[in-house]
Amino acid sequence: MHALCALLPAGISVRSKRGTVQCVCTRPLPSLASHSPNFCLVAWLVLNIMEETPSEGGMDYRVPGAVSNGETVPAYPGMEKEKEEEDQTLERGQWNNKLEYVLSVAGEIIGLGNVWRFPYLCYKNGGGAFFIPYLIFLFTCGIPVFFLETALGQYTSQGGVTAWRRICPLFEGIGYASQVIVVLLNFYYIIVLAWALFYLFSSFTIDLPWGSCDHEWNTGNCMELQKANSTLNVTSENATSPVIEFWERRVLKISDGIQHLGSLRWELALCLLLAWIICYFCIWKGVKSTGKVVYFTATFPYLMLVVLLIRGVSLPGASQGILFYLYPDLSRLGDPQVWMDAGTQIFFSYAICLGCLTALGSYNKYHNNCYRAWPGIHRLPSGCGHAALLPALGMLLLPDGCFAGTGQPVCLCGEPRHSSCGHVPHHFPQEEPPGDPHPAGLRPFLSGRGGMYVFQLFDYYAASGMCLLFVAIFETLCIAWVYGAERFYDNIEDMIGYRPWPIIKYCWLFITPAVCMATFLFSLIKYTPLTYNKKYVYPWWGDTLGWLLALSSMVCIPLWIVYKLSTIKGSLRERLRQLTCPLEDLPSMPGTGQPLPSTRAGLLMLTELESHC
Predict the structure, then answer these.
(1) What is the pLDDT of residue 65?
(2) Residue 480 pLDDT > 90, yes or no?
(3) DSSP letter string, 530-583
(4) pLDDT value at 311 more than 90
(5) 536-537 and 20-25: which strand pairing?
(6) Which helix (H) or strand (E) holds 234?
(7) What is the rounded distance in angstroms from the CA atom of residue 556 to the CA atom of residue 547?
(8) Is the pLDDT of residue 414 over 70?
(9) What CA–CA distance (Å, rounded) separates 297 from 601?
(10) How far from 582 is each of 116, 211, 510, 573, 601, CA to CA, in Å?
(11) Do the beta carbons of residue 482 and residue 168 sit within 8 Å?
């Protein structure tokens, strides 16, 4: 059409509608009248040929702004695609502002794992010396994978499964593995909320029920520690505190083992139902309702940490807790278990490999600077949470502290001894990863008298550091070596306008997968069967059930690779070529409609893939 227009004399334009040609004189010149019909005949022939036979290259030769086949040709061809992409974005929904995203991520990564698991690990692994491997894992694994997942979600505008499908269909199993972990995590994690609600309701009394031994659930071995410290000859191997007896004999009414699940605890079941209702109304309208809820749920924990810090410095032994960090036991760094604890704690603290960060990032605008946001976010749990718990750790180190006797090291479990503080205590198992609860089941098992044993199976196997490390290995391999780290940096540059610090790219390529692989193998070598309270040993079928829970997520990745390779036709080379190419509906260069160029293909890709991907 453009070639035809070049042949027309000045002042004549041609419009085509359903096979007819209309010559329009846009400038009244006398000389045009003699030859306008000839040009109209030529125009009619050319237009019919072009309409019947589309061009091989798919180019549009219609005049911008004209009407063809009943449709108005846009003045700028790229506008239609941009409008379609905008409509799809509106259907998915976005954060109203950047603050909602920051608060949502902050609420995701500040969890119970920071509040009670970290103090125990510090006590166990040399106090402040534990920060050395912790910071090493933070900068080599935590921050690179955290940024990878948030950038992936923002680039694809997809959740934890479809994001991997668009980047590399062969590794879609990464998304399914993360979802299985999240599902198993949610099966039992909301039980913690039910316990917290039970403690909250139980604390609405003048005298806290866990502050004395004068209740029906207490035994003859119950001993109030304040009185015991002022009395001679009261030491006993069977002595227990009112805190422990309230937890085990009132809250749990725990049975003798996992083989005795017992009857349903209706009080806990009602608290569990209330927790589900609260969670439902937090997410029932998607990102719109969640974006408003996080203004409270993400900021309130930090307010409580400030309260705990103020209360903690007034507890006896607070100075010992601070000194415990200032004078670390560096000899503990020679123990490989210390390094494994640090690595797994990073994944627990930052909610990595759960698909949550990818989903939260997918609601960002395409040009949001996700690189600038994470440096402030990742400091929140490692700064506020840990600083607030230093004084409390000192109290737990006292001879009558929780670490000295119960075998269930939990942050602030000694607080009920000072019942005047009036806060709700937490006395739960030693390992608990953070998460974002969503509706799930298992109420009869986890709310029964034997539910605590089932709870620890999920905690020790289903959402363990081993599963998260396994997923992290494949995430970095997929992005850095299959999709291409340089290509992903091109995508990030298109989103934020500049290239991030190159060290993150090299972490994806070499450091992160190597560190995760070493930690994963070490966790397998140093595996020990699960016990409860260092006394109860699970039966063989209990450990078998736990391993099935762990494998249920990890097996998703290799099974999906085998499934995809076996369901498409062609040689192995052709199938790999097809399955390692990103989908065509990924974001494209603005104004061109063409996929973002790759300056470097993934190192594991076939060389021919450069032109296809």
Answers:
(1) 43
(2) yes
(3) -EETTTEEPPHHHHHHHHHHHHHHHTHHHHHHHHHHHHS-S-HHHHHHHHTSPP
(4) no
(5) unpaired
(6) none
(7) 14
(8) no
(9) 42
(10) 42, 60, 22, 16, 12
(11) yes
For residue 34, CA distances in Å to 9, 29, 323, 486, 550 come to 11, 11, 102, 62, 85
Q: How far apart are CA 469 and CA 455, in angstroms?
A: 21
Lowest mean pLDDT among 145-149, 197-201, 408-412, 481-485: 408-412
Q: Is the pLDDT of residue 428 over 70?
A: no
Provide the pLDDT confidence category of residue 394 given band limits of 50, 70 and 90.
low
- Helix H, strand E, coil C: the string for 400-428 is CCHHHHCCCCCCCCCHHHHHHHCCCCCCC
Provide the residue type at 320 as one letter. Answer: Q
Helix (H) or strand (E) holding 14: strand 12-17
* Residues 76, 63: Cα–Cα separation, whole Å: 10
Residue 217, both tokens: 């659930």
Q: Would you list the DSSP string of 315-338? A: STTHHHHHHHHHS--GGGGG-HHH
Distance CA 199, CA 251 (A): 8
Q: State the Cα–Cα distance between residues 159 and 224, nearest whole angstrom.
A: 51
Torsion 310-314-319-320 (CA) sign: negative
Number of neighbouring beta carbons within 10 Å of residue 198: 21
From CA 478, how far away is CA 472, in angstroms rounded?
A: 10
Who wins on pLDDT, 1 or 550?
Answer: 550
Please give the Cα distance from 347 to 178 (Å, whole number): 13
Q: Is 295 exposed, middle or buried (0-12, 13-18, 19+ CB in 10 A)?
A: middle
Task: Kindly state the DSSP code that residue 48 receives in the 8-state scheme.
Answer: H
Q: Where are the alpha helices (DSSP H) in 447-484?
A: 451-457, 465-477
Alpha-helical (H) ranges within 207-335 are 225-229, 242-245, 266-283, 287-297, 300-312, 318-326
The pLDDT confidence band at residue 34, using thresholds 50, 70 and 90, is very low
Alpha-carbon distance of 348 to 83, in angstroms, equals 40
Tell me how many helices (H) and strands (E) the chain has: 32, 6
User: Which has the minimum average pLDDT: 106-120, 277-291, 309-323?
Assistant: 106-120
Q: Which residue shows structure tokens 């072009």? A: 50
CB–CB of 362/331 below 8 Å? no
Q: How many residues make up the chain in this entry?
A: 613
Place 165 in a pLDDT band, splitting at 50, 70 and 90: very high
CA gyration radius for the chain?
31
pLDDT per residue as tens digits for the range 123-134: 778 878 888 998
Specify the residue for token string 């316990």.
195
pLDDT digit string (tens) for 86-122?
444 446 778 888 888 888 888 777 766 666 677 778 7
User: Mean per-residue pLDDT for 429-457?
Assistant: 55
| Mean pLDDT value of segment 251-276 | 90
HSE value, Cβ hemisphere, 13 Å, CA-based, for 374: 21
The Cβ-side half-sphere exposure at 325, using a 13 Å CA radius, reads: 19
3-state secondary structure of 34: coil
Label the pairing between strands 71-72 and 531-532. unpaired
* b/e map 139-169, b = 16+ CB within 10 Å: ebbbbbbbbbbbbbbbbbbbbbbbbbbbbbb
